[in-house]
Specification:
Layout (H helix, E strand, L loop, with lengths): L3 H14 L16 H8 L2 H10 L14 H7 L3 H10 L14 H7 L3 H10 L14 H7 L3 H10 L16 H7 L6
Length: 184
Amino acid sequence: MGTPLTEANSLQRLLEEDMLVLDGFTRDCFAETPLHISAMLGHLEFKRNISSQTPVFAKELDFRRISPLLLATANGHLEVVKALLLVNPDMCDAQDRDGQSPLHIAVIKGRVDVLKELVQTKPEAVLLRTERGETILHLCVKHYQIDALKFLVETIKESGFTSSKDEDGSTVLHLAGADREIEV
């Protein structure tokens, strides 16, 4: 196997030659679909081709339960994120085997532009918690993502959102206060 970029280019050529080539890919045979590779690398046009021919790929999770949306989010590919959200906005709720959703990953990686798009598309996804019971706000503080924290606090008006506790009983204010580098 070549590099992911080589694989994506090869898949694009195959797709141009044989529009039915994607019918051969199934979740049982491959850990990642061509859409996973396209999303990870930010290949918007390739993503559009795959999504139009095989929209089910937008819902597929790899063996780590990672979706194409999560990969595009992690790599900051905003246009690919937007395109994937058009195909299946419910993937905002998909959590990987560590309980992290695309919104969680956007916060951890500091992808505020992507976070805004995800929240605009599916605001209720901000309520998802990680396996450790952390809210998206806990992750903002834990990963020093102050711009994301400000955006979320200003945007989400859900009752109890800012006072939620993680599995250790800590609120966001507890975490911020314990870390002297973050102003409360």
